[in-house]
Structure formats: C-alpha cells, structure tokens
Write a structure and sequence with these properties.
Layout: E1 10-12, E2 15-17, H1 22-27, H2 60-71
Antiparallel strand pairs: 1-2
C-alpha cells in the first residue's frame, strides 16, 4: 500500500523529523512502534520551471489554449 501526504520537516534537537497527520494515521491504522517505509521526494519549486520553455516551436498562446481544453474536461 502506498499513500501520499504533504508534511513539513522540523528540527528536533540535533535531528530532523516529520509529523504524520492524525487523519492519515487514523485512516491507515498506524500504531506506535510500527515499522513503516517512507519515500522522500522534495516538493517541486515553481521557480525551477521558469525558462524551461525556451526553444519550443509552439507559441505561448497555443499552449494556454491547449491547457484550457484539458482543464475544461
């Protein structure tokens, strides 16, 4: 089973820790001292996306129009 939720890293003494939201713990029936596996993936930074479209052969207007078609589905 795999679930996904957003958490924030916090400083705990000399370590870093995360808190699993109560709703997730209840829904997944997580118990204290239970072994789990956590997959870590950093949240994408929108500022990394700027400039990625340079060199594309499609205009920005055509890209916006295509996006609107998808969002209206």
């Amino acid at each position: 089973m795999e679930i996904q939720t957003n958490v924030r890293i916090k400083q705990w003494g000399n370590s870093l820790g995360i808190v699993i939201p109560k709703e997730v713990a209840i829904r997944e029936d997580l118990k204290e001292n239970e072994d789990i596996v956590i997959i870590i993936k950093k949240k994408d930074n929108l500022s990394d996306l700027f400039g990625k479209g340079k060199g594309l052969k499609i205009s920005a207007q055509k890209m916006k129009d295509a996006g609107r078609k998808i969002w209206s589905l």
